[in-house]
Inverse folding.
């Protein structure tokens, strides 16, 4: 490895980067833009469930129950109806996600010590949301039930207590905000796309313009060329990572709980793997267009769909779960969640780090193999 | 000692033989012309000699190093400039020069000295910060040549360096090539312009991957084309060519500007015979017929047509 040669290439690449101001601005601000979109728009939290109530009982009990639901904060009671024929219409038109039907004899049954019944109708088109609504309804009802039991028992004069009281505490993301869960995945997606695409484009551009020939004929070794050409993009990507973390902190309160040093080292290793992917793409494509298409396909799609960024890997069919191992994004997301959200150390994710190194080696090895084949035949 | 020694060099791409068993040698400090039509195998040969492409069989010593076993050493000792302009258009002149200096590992005092040298030969002193994209073609080629020899190689390969450059710039580019040769640097050059080939000390001609002629320009003209050549000025040109091609006197007929060059058959070398033949045809007026020394173009067209048959 010759330092003068490598430095010359890296310097030249930085100059290309800073000469093309438009491209530089895109590379710098695109991540912030994406973060804003994902942070605010992609939100899996279910709040303000549009609720319609059909109360045919109209007693103190039914009103109290409705108030209790309303004050839980999850339900937004927008409408009261007077007949059950309207229920269908309301659900059809998506005017409500939830309809609560209180039968006529609720209060009577309750006071005569019979089991009182309430019906919930949930719009089940979006299965995820529907099951969340169900959970909220169940929780709200059971807490109201507790209250009623308390009142009833205290009337009989005996002391009431709940046999087993449970207190769930959510670790790492106590408010259960999906943004916190999404941000590590977002960082990974942005880093892999920007580094793989920009590196493959910069290498193919030289092939397309013929300038690579002048470098091929010089004593520059392929290792020097690769390090020289990728260093500027790795630096840029690290800068991007910092920007995303800062913006994530300001806008969404995402704090790095673990070590910054570990974060830096693992990010560099991941960038090494994703630039290797870019190099592999550059070897198999002959024009910038082809390189752009292949590199976005190879980096963006798996990092969104297969990485566990949005869709949990555990709930995928086993065949698809095997495919998730094809993207380094999966492993780096696990690392980032461990460092940023949990604040744990290397012992929790050293396997993932090894996977990343394997990825880089395989990508570079393949690129080298294909390149040397080409050298002999074309 | 020879600068380049090529031995039975062959390159196949699948079943296609691009370079077919070529052998030749290039003396130190000479300007060596490497000629051939498009697709004859020139660029492939140059790429092999520069260590960019591995030969299928055969070998060559470039600056004393085998291109097969010591391509790293070959690369350190040669300069290369291709027909495609290979400087970076979005970088300034000085940035381009510094990049190539760095690629060849130049540092310190030597670096400064060589940067100034390149700026001087390209006539770009004081214009270091201009973007390369804005330079005219001729200047770009000089700059490209300067950067190609920034590390002072003993051998420089120029692959069609003057294609697409105006005649005046071409002439001054050749002055530069002569300067390099005078400094004992071997210049290996391919070109499409046969008047440029006249400037070379030695020439080889290849066709379909095979070597078909070699020697200095003077030898080529006398050795390979011993027949009389007539330069005929007559109108209408198309009719005259048709008549000449059909006649028993001529072997080859080709057009050179307003003139017609006819390679005569051995038995009929007298211009009077041609003159009287043409005179007897209606509508043809003959201005003049002269016997001429063949140009390289005559020789090459003759050789390529013979090879084609």
């Amino acid at each position: 490895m010759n330092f003068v040669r490598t430095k010359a290439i890296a310097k030249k690449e930085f100059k290309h980067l800073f000469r093309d101001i438009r491209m530089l601005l895109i590379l710098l601000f695109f991540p912030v833009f994406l973060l804003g979109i994902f942070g605010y728009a992609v939100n899996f939290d279910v709040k303000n469930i549009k609720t319609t109530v059909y109360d045919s009982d109209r007693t103190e009990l039914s009103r109290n129950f409705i108030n209790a639901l309303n004050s839980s904060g999850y339900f937004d009671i927008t409408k009261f109806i007077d007949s059950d024929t309207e229920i269908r219409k309301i659900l059809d038109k998506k005017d409500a996600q939830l309809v609560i039907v209180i039968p006529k004899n609720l209060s009577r049954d309750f006071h005569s010590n019979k089991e009182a019944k309430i019906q919930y109708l949930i719009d089940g088109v979006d299965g995820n949301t529907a099951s969340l609504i169900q959970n909220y309804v169940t929780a709200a009802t059971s807490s109201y039930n507790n209250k009623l039991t308390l009142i009833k028992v205290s009337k009989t004069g005996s002391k009431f207590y709940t046999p087993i009281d449970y207190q769930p505490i959510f670790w790492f993301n106590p408010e259960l905000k999906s943004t916190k869960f999404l941000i590590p995945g977002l960082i990974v997606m942005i880093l892999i796309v920007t580094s793989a695409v920009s590196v493959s484009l910069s290498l193919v551009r030289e092939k397309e313009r013929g300038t690579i020939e002048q470098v091929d004929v010089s004593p520059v070794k392929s290792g020097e060329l690769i390090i020289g050409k990728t260093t500027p993009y790795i630096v840029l990507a690290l800068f991007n990572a910092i920007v995303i973390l800062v913006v994530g902190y300001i806008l969404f309160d995402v704090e790095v709980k673990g070590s910054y040093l570990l974060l830096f080292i693992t990010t560099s290793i991941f960038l090494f793997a994703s630039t290797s992917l870019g190099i592999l793409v550059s070897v198999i494509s002959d024009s910038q267009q082809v390189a752009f298409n292949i590199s976005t396909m190879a980096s963006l799609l798996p990092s969104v769909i297969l990485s566990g960024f949005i869709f949990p890997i555990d709930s995928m069919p086993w065949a698809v779960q095997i495919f998730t191992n094809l993207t380094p994004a999966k492993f780096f997301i696990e690392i980032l969640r461990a460092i940023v959200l949990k604040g744990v150390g290397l012992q929790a994710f050293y396997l993932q780090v090894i996977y990343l190194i394997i990825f880089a080696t395989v990508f570079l090895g393949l690129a080298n193999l294909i390149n040397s084949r080409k050298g002999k035949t074309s | 000692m020879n600068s380049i020694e090529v031995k039975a060099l062959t390159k196949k791409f699948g079943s296609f033989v691009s370079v077919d068993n070529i052998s030749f040698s290039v003396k130190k400090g000479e300007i060596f012309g490497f000629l051939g039509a498009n697709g004859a195998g020139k660029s492939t040969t140059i790429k092999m000699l520069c260590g960019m492409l591995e030969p299928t069989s055969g070998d060559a010593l470039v600056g004393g190093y085998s291109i097969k076993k010591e391509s790293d050493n070959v690369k350190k000792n040669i300069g290369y400039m291709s027909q495609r302009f290979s400087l970076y258009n979005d970088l300034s002149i000085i940035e381009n020069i510094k990049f190539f200096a760095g690629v060849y590992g130049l540092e310190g005092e030597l670096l400064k000295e060589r940067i100034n040298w390149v700026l001087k030969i390209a006539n770009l002193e004081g214009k270091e910060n201009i973007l390369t994209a804005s330079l005219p073609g001729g200047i770009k080629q000089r700059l490209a040549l300067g950067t190609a020899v920034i590390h002072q190689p003993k051998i420089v390969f120029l692959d069609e360096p003057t294609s697409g450059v105006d005649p005046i710039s071409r002439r001054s580019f050749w002055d530069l090539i002569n300067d390099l040769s005078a400094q004992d640097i071997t210049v290996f050059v391919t070109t499409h312009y046969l008047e440029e080939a006249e400037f070379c000390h030695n020439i080889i001609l290849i066709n379909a991957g095979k070597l078909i002629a070699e020697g200095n320009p003077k030898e080529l003209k006398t050795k390979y084309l011993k027949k009389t050549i007539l330069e005929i000025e007559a109108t209408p040109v198309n009719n005259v060519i048709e008549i000449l091609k059909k006649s028993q006197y001529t072997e080859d007929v080709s057009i050179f500007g307003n003139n017609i060059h006819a390679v005569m058959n051995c038995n009929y070398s007298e211009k009077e015979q041609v003159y009287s033949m043409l005179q007897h045809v209606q509508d043809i007026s003959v201005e003049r017929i002269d016997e001429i020394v063949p140009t390289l173009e005559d020789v090459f067209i003759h050789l390529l047509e013979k090879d084609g048959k």
Q: What stands out?
A: The first strand of chain A starts at residue 49 and ends at 55. Chain A has a mean pLDDT of 86. The CA atoms of residues 68 and 144 of chain A lie 7 Å apart.
